[in-house]
Amino acid sequence: PDLRLTNALVIGGGVAGVAAYGFAKWWDQGFKGQFSTSNEGWFGQDTYTGGADKLGHMYSTYVGTRILARAFEWAGHDSQSAAWLAAATAWGSMLAIEIGDGFSSRYRFSKEDLVMNTLGTGLGLLLEKNPELDAMLDFRLMYRPSSDARRANQIDPIDDHSGQTYLLAIKASGIPGLRRI
Question: For the chain, how long is the longest CA-to-CA vector?
Fold first, then answer.
């Protein structure tokens, strides 16, 4: 296969999807000429969503890395190369979003978001490159629309942080000593 073409399709499709979603959801109020940053804090009671949005950043890059690894394998890469390319693409896409936030009229660049994007990418890469560990661990999102979302009839698993529950699951079936039971 022509890896340049398939890689361009995979990366281009991902970047186009992120950009389209960003313009539709986040950047509808436009951009300004100056780059701005924000100290959003982490998981404190006085932070936006109590930090649940930070877990959303981690989960997004984790899932992006895992899904893109399959896409790069489909494009003809071996599993190790696909994992690294997926991690770079997922992290780079989220970096582009943060930079866009830095120029947006409503949002700001957040170093906390960047750190969580890095952790999510790292976890995805770690599990992609270590099948034994991947068999034992999973990072999961459970979503049940919050009462506010149900009242407003706006079901949104991405921005309805009150309806999200994040889990780091230990899978007993992946533990060698328990597989024989």
Answer: 62
